[in-house]
From TrEMBL:
InterPro entries, per the entry: CheY-like_superfamily, HATPase_C_sf, HATPase_dom, His_kinase_dom, HisK_dim/P_dom, HisK_dim/P_sf, PAC, PAS
SMART domains documented for this protein: HATPase_c (SM00387), HisKA (SM00388), PAC (SM00086), PAS (SM00091), REC (SM00448)
UniProt-listed Enzyme Commission number(s): 2.7.13.3
Modification 4-aspartylphosphate occurs at: 72
Keyword Kinase found: yes
Annotated protein name in UniProt: histidine kinase
Superkingdom as given in the UniProt entry: Bacteria
GO biological process, one term: regulation of DNA-templated transcription
Length: 791
């Protein structure tokens, strides 16, 4: 019956109270399903859906009143394990229910180990008699609320316990409750601090047995017997000595207060304070007073105590001797001075008595004041410094303590130092070098005329300003801070090269030498810097470094060119040994044949051999022409020499020449598209371009018998296109074909030097043109050269 009533009460609470549930779910449909089940159960729930780690964190931080977290396991880029970790990080006590339709048993166990409170399959959420969803929600919320109550109760208990412990441990005085006979009934924990006894130990002792024998009867008779007499009395205060556990006596001052109930004495409460130090201090004070009086009398400095009317109340021997008095009388301090001396101020001006300082006026204005006077007695004079400090009791100013001493030698020395200081200030001000001072924070404290002339800033414009903000470039600030720290911390003179920004925006470079500087008034440590303008020196140095770098680059370029020449020579030797050997062998073979058999063979065979000799000689001539052309380019000896010539006729002659060289193995399909045939260009460079393009097209299309040459003139541009259907060039080698001596892998079996395309490229560059290439293996190659007719 009781259990049913409890369940009914819980149901009523869930029906009436608002429950706040945070749902981690990316599916709106699943969220609405959970919401319908919760609402159908009769729970008064306020819910919010989040679907990312950021939204979850924000929701937990913005609202501390969530009662429950319900989380789907799998979300895009997010999962329930991560949601559980975030929840426990922000609120470790809030219940967490994992809901999923796909999670396996191992994952669910892992989540429960990490702190999840329950795991429910999504299929079991639907409200039916077998669903655990709503009962789990209610159970976790009830547990959570009970946990919060327990935590709150525990917190209150902990605070109360802490407050009691702090109170008991920090009471400095000894608090005791005595019975009507005076013995202990209760003592505070401070007994261990005051007397060295624990509470238990002190309660087992007799109070009167601890009191010093000289004081015990007085305490009994004058205090406790008086209280025990039956008369109503107030607080009793008394002092006495009491023995500690270590057998040493200390002095206590005790307040005893009787506690009455129904008019009768019930007990006595005493509060005792250790005044041993006070007693010892008072004794020490008496001893010190005697010492101080002895010291005061032995001082060479005169000291006098005067009242507000300047009447001397007391004076030491030195003061009496100087003031020429033997006994104290009613004469005032200033009257004594002016009766015995002529008085002058620090500027050596004579003073009247009315000009002398007066205690009555000055002690109400200042706590302490100093004056220096020149006192003259006949031909002798002395400089004396007078110091007056208020003499007061309980903040009431009753007079002054006046001390005076002879400072003649130091005063004269000070005057000399002041003159030297003024000379130094003038030297700094007018020095022919920039001088400035800064404190440890970089604020400017000194600025001479030369610094003003260099920077354009007057002294009043920069004093107190920060050196870094005003002058130092951003990229040099760290260096300057290290410079300041090094000098201040190590006290060592140091140098720093610094660029200063002038008022006009000009950058001036200085070499500064810095040293520590101490302000003797404040004791602050700073730096004084003396500079030298090295702008021209830096510019010369930079120019010299530039020249060195420039010369280094030239030497490197020369070295690279030398390396290139060596490489070219190596390639040339390799190529020449191959390319020249073949025609020379052919020439030698033909010549030997004619020499050995010229009487036995007919002239037709001799002509064949001679034609072979001529062909091989022409090949070698072309080879040498190519090599010489490359050599001229390397030496920078090729110059563009323009002239007017007929481009069409020039091309036709080149075609005949190329066909003769190839023994008419190919037909050149030539097209010329332009009404204008004459052009103003270098015909030798044009010859190199077309000749080499046609020779390559014929050479590398041995299986074809036609190559195309198209020449056109459009908008002051000459366009030359040579196309063949030959072996083509591999795509991965297209970037290297203009290099000297380079030959593609599929062309190594065909005779050639690897110089033709390099010569073409250099000629095109000299004419400020462009060359384009299209090529496919076994499909052919197409070159397009574009040359401008105008600069």
């Amino acid at each position: 019956m009781i259990e049913n009533d409890a369940n009914k009460n819980n149901e009523e609470k869930f029906t009436n109270e608002l429950i706040k549930i945070l749902i981690v779910e990316d599916s709106v449909d699943d969220y609405e399903l959970i919401l319908r089940v919760i609402n159908r159960s009769g729970l008064n729930a306020e819910t919010k859906r989040v679907e990312s780690p950021t939204e979850l964190r924000d929701a937990l931080k913005d609202n501390k009143d969530w009662n429950l977290i319900i989380s789907d396991y799998s979300l895009p880029g997010f999962n329930a394990i991560e949601a559980l970790r975030i929840t426990k990080e922000i609120n470790p006590h809030i219940p967490f229910i994992l809901v999923s339709g796909t999670v396996g048993e191992e994952t669910a166990v892992e989540a429960m180990k990490m702190g999840a409170d329950d795991f429910i399959l999504k299929d079991n959420i639907i409200d039916n008699h077998e669903s655990r969803f709503i009962p789990a929600i209610k159970r976790e919320i009830v547990d959570y609320r009970n946990q919060l109550k327990m935590l709150k109760t525990k917190s209150l208990l902990d605070k109360s316990r802490l407050y009691y412990q702090l109170l008991a441990q920090n009471v400095q005085d000894l608090v005791c409750i005595h019975d009507t006979t005076g013995e202990f009934s209760w003592v505070s924990p401070s007994s261990i601090k005051v007397l060295g006894y624990s509470q238990e130990e002190l309660l087992s002792c007799s109070y009167f047995s601890l009191i010093h024998p000289d004081d015990v009867n007085r305490v009994k008779d004058l205090v406790f017997k008086h209280i025990q007499s039956g008369a109503i009395v107030e607080l009793q205060r008394f002092k006495y000595k009491i023995k500690r556990k270590d057998q040493n006596y200390i002095h206590l001052e005790t307040l005893a207060e009787p506690i009455y109930m129904h008019g009768e004495l019930h007990n006595i409460v005493s509060t005792s304070r250790d005044i041993t130090e006070q007693i010892q201090a008072y004794k020490l004070l008496e001893e010190n007073q005697a010492k101080y009086e002895s010291v005061l009398e032995s001082m060479t400095e005169g000291v006098a105590l005067v009242d507000s009317e300047e009447k001397i109340l007391n004076a030491n021997k030195s003061a009496k001797h100087f003031l020429k008095i033997e006994e104290l009388d009613q004469i005032t301090f200033s009257k004594l001075i002016f009766n015995n001396f002529a008085v002058f101020d620090s500027e050596n001006n004579p003073l009247q008595r009315s000009d002398f300082f007066t205690v009555k006026e000055d002690i109400n204005e200042k706590t302490q004041f100093n004056f220096i006077y020149k006192l003259k007695n006949g031909s002798k004079h002395k400089w004396l410094i007078f110091n007056s400090a208020p003499y007061s009791i309980h903040e009431e100013k009753l007079g002054a303590v006046i001390s005076f001493r002879d400072v003649t030698s130091s005063y004269e020395s000070e005057k000399k130092l002041n003159r030297l200081a003024q000379e130094l200030v003038q030297l700094i001000k007018t020095a022919n070098a920039p001088i400035f001072g800064i404190d440890k924070d970089g604020k400017i404290t000194e600025w001479n005329d030369f610094a003003q002339n260099i920077t354009g800033y007057a002294k009043k414009e920069v004093l107190g300003k920060n050196l870094f903000e005003k002058f130092v470039m951003v990229n040099e600030q760290e260096k300057v801070r290290d410079f300041i720290s090094f000098i201040i911390e190590d006290g060592i003179t140091s140098n720093c090269e610094l660029s200063l920004k002038t008022k006009s925006g000009e950058i001036v470079i200085f070499l500064f030498s810095g040293n520590t500087r101490i302000d003797f008034e404040t004791g602050d440590v700073g730096i004084i810097c003396v500079g030298q303008d090295i702008t021209e020196l830096i510019e010369y140095r930079n120019h010299l470094e530039y020249r060195v770098e420039e010369r280094t680059r030239d030497l490197k370029a020369a070295l690279e060119k030398e390396k290139e020449l060596v490489l070219m020579q190596t390639k040339f030797v390799s190529m020449a040994s191959h390319e020249f050997r073949t025609p020379l062998s052919s020439i030698k073979f033909a010549a030997d044949y004619i020499k050995n058999y010229y009487l036995k063979i007919d002239w037709e065979k001799v002509n064949v051999k001679l034609e072979n000799i001529i062909e091989q000689a022409d090949h070698m001539t072309h080879l040498l022409d190519d090599i010489l052309e490359i050599g001229k380019d390397k030496a920078g000896k090729i110059k563009v020499e323009k002239s007017v010539f007929n481009l069409k006729e020039h091309c036709e002659k080149l075609i005949i020449e190329v066909q003769n060289q190839s023994k008419n193995s190919h037909v050149v399909d030539f097209k010329f598209s332009s009404t204008k045939e004459e052009v103003y260009l270098d015909n030798k460079l044009i010859r190199n371009i077309i000749n080499n393009l046609l020779n390559n097209a014929i050479k590398f299309s041995p299986e074809r018998d036609v190559v195309k040459l198209d020449v056109s003139i459009n908008n002051d541009l000459i366009i030359i296109i040579v196309e063949d259907k030959g072996i083509g060039i591999p795509e991965n080698e297209l970037g290297n074909i203009y290099n000297e001596f380079y030959r593609s892998k599929n062309a190594t079996s065909i005779q050639g030097t690897g110089l033709g395309l390099s010569i073409i490229k250099k000629a095109v560059n000299l004419l400020k043109g462009t060359i384009e290439l299209e090529s496919k293996i076994e499909k052919g190659t197409k070159f397009k050269v574009t040359l401008p007719l105008k600069e």
